[in-house]
Amino acid sequence: MRDDELLTVPDVMARLKLGRSTVYDLIRSRRLPSITIGRCRRIPARAVREYITNELEAAA
Fold first, then answer.
1. What share of the chain is helix, strand, coil (3-state, %, to 5)?
2. Domain total for the chain?
3. Which of 40, 39, 53 is nearest to 7 (CA)?
4. Is residue 1 part of a domain?
5. What is the pLDDT of residues 8-18, one digit of tens each?
6. Residue 43 backbone class (left: φ over 0; alpha: ψ -120 to 50; beta: rest)
7. Is 0.85 topped by the overall pTM?
8. What is the Cα–Cα distance from 37 to 15, expressed in whole angstroms?
9. 45 lies in which domain range?
């Protein structure tokens, strides 16, 4: 996964093993940054990695 790669919501769902509504909840709560291009939601791969890192630190 490259830093500049933009992921779709289904991509993030598969990588985090989460459901669609959970991913959108993370986006809505700003815990997972995203951008909108036209009508498409995209999540930077870097943001997914940072989310995982933050969750691991919080769990420790």
1. 55, 15, 30
2. 1
3. 40
4. no
5. 999 999 999 99
6. beta
7. yes
8. 21
9. 6-59
Q: How many residues in total does the chain contain?
A: 60
Give, in order, the Cα–Cα distances in Å from 55 to each of 2, 15, 16, 37, 48.
Answer: 20, 15, 12, 27, 11
Q: Which residues of 14-34 are buried (b: 16+ CB within 10 A; e: fewer)?
A: ebbeeeeeebbebbeeeebeb
Given the structure tokens 């790669």, which residue do they identify?
5
Residue type, 3: D
Q: Model confidence over 13-60: pLDDT tens digits? A: 999 999 999 999 999 999 999 999 999 999 999 999 999 999 999 998
Gyration radius from the chain CA atoms? 11
- 10 in any annotated domain: yes
The Cα–Cα gap between 52 and 32 comes to 10
Does residue 15 belong to any structural domain of this protein? yes
